[in-house]
Specification:
Radius of gyration: 23 Å
Strand content: 25-35%
Bound molecules: flavin-adenine dinucleotide
Structural class: alpha/beta
Largest sheet: 7 strands, mixed
Order of helices and strands: EHEHEEHEEEEEEHEHEEEEEEEEEEHH
Shape: elongated
Helix content: 10-25%
Length: 341
Amino acid sequence: MAEPIHSCDAAIVGAGPVGLFAVFEFGMLGMNTHVVDTLEMAGGQCTALYPEKPIFDIPACPRIAALDLVERLVEQAAPFEPVYHLGQQVVALQPSADGAGWRLETSKGTVIEARVVVIAAGAGAFGPNRPPLPGIEEYEGRSVHYMVLRRVDFADKRVVVAGGGDSAVDWAISLADIAAQVSVVHRRGKFRAAPESVRRLHELAEQGRIDLVVPYQLHGLEGRDGALDAVVVADLDGRTRRLEADVLLPFYGLAMSLGPIAGWGLGLERNHISIDRQTCMTSVDGIFAIGDIATYPGKLKLILTGFAEAASAAHAAYPVVFKGRELHFEYSTTKGIPGAR
Ligand SMILES: Cc1cc2nc3c(=O)[nH]c(=O)nc-3n(C[C@H](O)[C@H](O)[C@H](O)COP(=O)(O)OP(=O)(O)OC[C@H]3O[C@@H](n4cnc5c(N)ncnc54)[C@H](O)[C@@H]3O)c2cc1C
């Protein structure tokens, strides 16, 4: 049986923090939303890359773990009853047959028709940079992980962290508390992480709680049926060393690609969507872009910037969705939200 066609005022591509806040902003102006995300969970980079890390620059939250921020955004959006389509990628976007809006199609065959589209796709179709190790696919998801959702999953495990940036250093420090053993493999002696984190890493190494394996790079994996026994590393002269391990966490950054978005006819600038800063409209009427994926001179890739863009986009989308209706600006304190007294 054919899938039903969903229809809504605004279709939001991406359920990262900015897409979630767009649900709220569009909802406040009376527009209902459907939200699609490739990932199985809402939260974008916050959930996928640093769920337990504290964020310090969200206004009025002096310190909030990334996953807690996402939970609060989902709660804040809930009164507006968004419909989430998770675990599916928007693969096609084209004008709707009646010419009144847009038709989106996902990788699972879901079809959504919307008056406007809000692209909050962050780093686009982002995926980890994989180390070129033969047979690594066999271990992925079981012993090789490119993200850490819950550190408790690594309790009492022998963990090899690979990489020299913030993620590698921060996770090595964090897991040193609970893992049976943590080794950090980096091809240079110098780490590219925040100075305070690097200082802490060396402190833990001196205390024998982290083994710094430098300058080495990943060379091979040993194990069977997806269960790792050891990670083999090689120095710059090709001499190998075997690190017994249950888990390998390679943190070599994200490969960013716009994925299908690149083919939607929008004005692009270096893998980002160019927008008009005042309205957040792209080069195509009725399609907006906000958050990390949107660019304009002076753009700051911060969550709070994306939140402000969500508000701008909602106000600019209103006359497109409700043709001819005038928008009377009101504060949330005046308007309230559904169900609140
Ligand atoms: C380690 C780290 C620490 C950070 N710390 C801070 C900080 O302290 N403060 C701060 O302000 N920012 C911080 N950031 C940056 C912040 O996370 C981003 O600015 C923010 O996540 C951008 O939100 P977004 O919603 O625009 O995009 P994202 O969070 O990237 O979410 C976009 C979502 O869109 C989905 N998507 C993409 N293409 C499609 C498609 N075709 N179909 C369906 N779904 C799609 C993706 O799967 C993703 O879930 C940090 C980032 C990292 C990596």
